[in-house]
Amino acid sequence: GADVAAAVAVVHQRHRQPAQVDVGAAQDVLLARRFAAADQHRGDRFLIWTNEDAPNSRLMEARLGHLDRREWREILPHRPDVLLDEVSAFAEHLVIYERAAGSKLIRLSAPDAVSHVRYVTFPDATYSFRTDTFREHMNPEFDTHRLRIHYSSYTTPDSAVDVDMRDGTWHVVQQQTVPGFVPQRYVTTRL
């Protein structure tokens, strides 16, 4: 395919690395690519989201020691109506941040990306969230069922929320106090 981007963004959380491997050497192979891609190391494999032949990106897998592009395996194909925005790997879960129909979504699944797929349900029709973007380190634990997000809407002040990745239940850890704010006075709808 045509070169989509001249650089490769390599994203790696060393504090969430489940095994000791020569990640730097493996990433050098991935860095040689001439299309936009980013990776996250998970045990003996790299999860790679790339826009090669996929404008909205797709998720690939490469085994350590088998990083040549011809040996990558597609685990989540390109979807023309869904942008794959970011990926976070955990011991028993894979979190994929998506954009579809104008909304930001959180897709939860088993580590294989196709089993036990479910989406986080948000309490408001319109909302915003921030989460593990590899720079903020809100989710430093690899072996956990808790996904920390920061959520807000016109009816919900900024809140730190732990989402149980097994069943999607929410636990509000902290919520910003807004003097005089009465959420019942507001309604949010999605047009």
**What is the N-to-C succession of helices and strands?**
HEEEEEEEEEEEE
Q: Can you give the mean pLDDT?
A: 79
User: What's the Cα radius of gyration?
Assistant: 18 Å
SS summary, helix count: 1
State the strand order across the main sheet. 1-2-3-4
- The proportion of strand residues reads 35-45%
The biggest beta sheet is recorded as: 4 strands, antiparallel
Shape: elongated
Helix content: under 10%
- Number of strand segments: 12
Quaternary class: single chain
Backbone structural class: mainly beta
The span between the termini is 38 Å
Flag low-confidence runs.
1-21
Key features?
four-stranded antiparallel sheet; 5% helix; single chain; disordered N terminus; 191 residues; 1 helix; mainly beta
Written overview of the protein:
With 191 residues, the chain is mainly beta. Helix content is 5%, strand content 36%. Strands 1-2-3-4 form a 4-stranded antiparallel sheet, with helices on one face. Strands 5-6-7-8 form a 4-stranded antiparallel sheet, with no helix packed on it. Strand 5 and strand 6 form a beta hairpin. The N and C termini lie far apart (38 Å). The N terminus is likely disordered.
